[in-house]
Amino acid sequence: MAVTIETISTLERRFNLVIPSAQIEKEVSSRLLQLTRTVRMQGFRPGKVPLRMIASTYGPQVRSEVLGDAIQKNFSDTVSEQKIRVAGYPRIEAKPDSGKTEGAANDASFEFVATFEVYPEFSVGDLSVLKVERASAAVSDADVDKTIETLQRQRVKYDAVERKSSKDDRVTVDFVGKIDGVAFDGGSAQDFAFVLGERQMLPEFDVNATGLSVGEHKVFNLTFPDDYQGKDVAGKTAEFTVTMKKTEGPLLPSLDAEFAKSLGIADGDLAKMKADVRLNLEREVKKRLQNHVKNSVMQALYESVKMEAPKALIEMDVQRLVEQAKSDLAQRGIKQDMPLPPDLFQEQAKRRVSLGLILNELVKSNGLEAKAEQVRAIVDEYAQSYEDPTEVVRWYYSDKQRLGDVEAIALEENVVQFVLSKAKVEEKAVPFDELMGRA
């Protein structure tokens, strides 16, 4: 019997599923008969349990399974015959009085309504009109030296000093904050330690804690930003009293063989250390430049291709993003008592789904599938930053999902290079500090 597909909206479709009751009952009887060979019940030998007892015990469960299988097969057969590409999962609901409707042969039938979305039809269009930015950056000797200084600061130690506090000192203070003369939650602490100039505190607090000697105290006003995370005090002005308890000056490790060894240079050679730092910086710069141009290409594609992404796929991706965010927070030790609002991820999910469809279309239309040698080259590059590259390569190739993630990266790179070969590319030199997020 021909099925009529109803168009509800641009992507939403609907049709009726009709399953004869006799078909269901026949399959239920068959499965119950099979159960008589395996079901065990107290008081009966294996294979000797009466069919009526098996039907009484397992009948409802078996009937539910049979009906579910029939619905799934009926739906799958219909969309296959109609050559429909279903996006996400269908919503299948029983029609009122289903199971009581009289069919052509006067047999009761189960009737359901299947509602679902289809993939959008779209074209990517002329890539030559796209404008894409390709950044470039180089690693200088000064960048290497600055990075080594940063590595030194990461290994800093502190020693007590008898002088006024200054930038880069670690200070220990007592403080009390009041709004309209009343202390507020989170506004007071004792023996609180932080480093001046490292943005661990609000700028006004940092400035007023600078230049104090041990035992000295200072009273000052501080206005919390309107978007401050503590909403009870956001936008309000508080009076703080700070007392300096201890000042410790920074002691950077010497730039010597021991320092080089701490960075993994076995023989402590400083020249090797600098070369290793430069290599790591160049590797990081390359990765960031690749991400920069990839983001530029993806944004150009997203803005140029007009399509309606299936809501079902967007909702599925929203849930993935919510779970990923929860996992990230848990790994960082942040307890999440309140559920994360899905709306926070709606636009991100819409962009991800749309770009996924666009990339699939470009790959299919232009033969941009990832090649095995590309995947291996990416894995080898990842492995080079580890002590045992061979073990890392083996780790990737031992798991299909891990290797699939690398294949996705190779596929994206193929799309990026294809778009760059067609689009209008603007070359842009980017300062090293800006690229690394230090500006």
Structure description:
The protein is of the alpha+beta class and 439 residues long. It folds into three domains: 6-118, Trigger factor ribosome-binding domain (Alpha-Beta Plaits, 2-Layer Sandwich), CATH 3.30.70; 127-140 and 268-435, Trigger factor, C-terminal domain (Trigger factor, domain 2, Orthogonal Bundle); 156-251, Chitinase A, domain 3 (Roll), CATH 3.10.50.40. Helix content is 45%, strand content 22%. The chain has helices spanning 21-35, 51-81, 141-154, 203-208, 257-262, 270-304, 311-331, 346-366, 372-383, 389-397, 400-422, 432-435; strands at 6-7, 12-20, 86-94, 101-102, 108-118, 131-136, 157-160, 170-179, 182-195, 217-223, 237-251, 424-429. Strands 1, 2, 3, 4 and 5 form a five-stranded antiparallel beta sheet that branches. A hairpin with a 2-residue loop joins strand 8 (170-179) and strand 9. The protein starts with 5 loop residues before the first strand and ends with a helix. 16% of the residues are buried. Mean pLDDT is 91; it is low at 101-106.
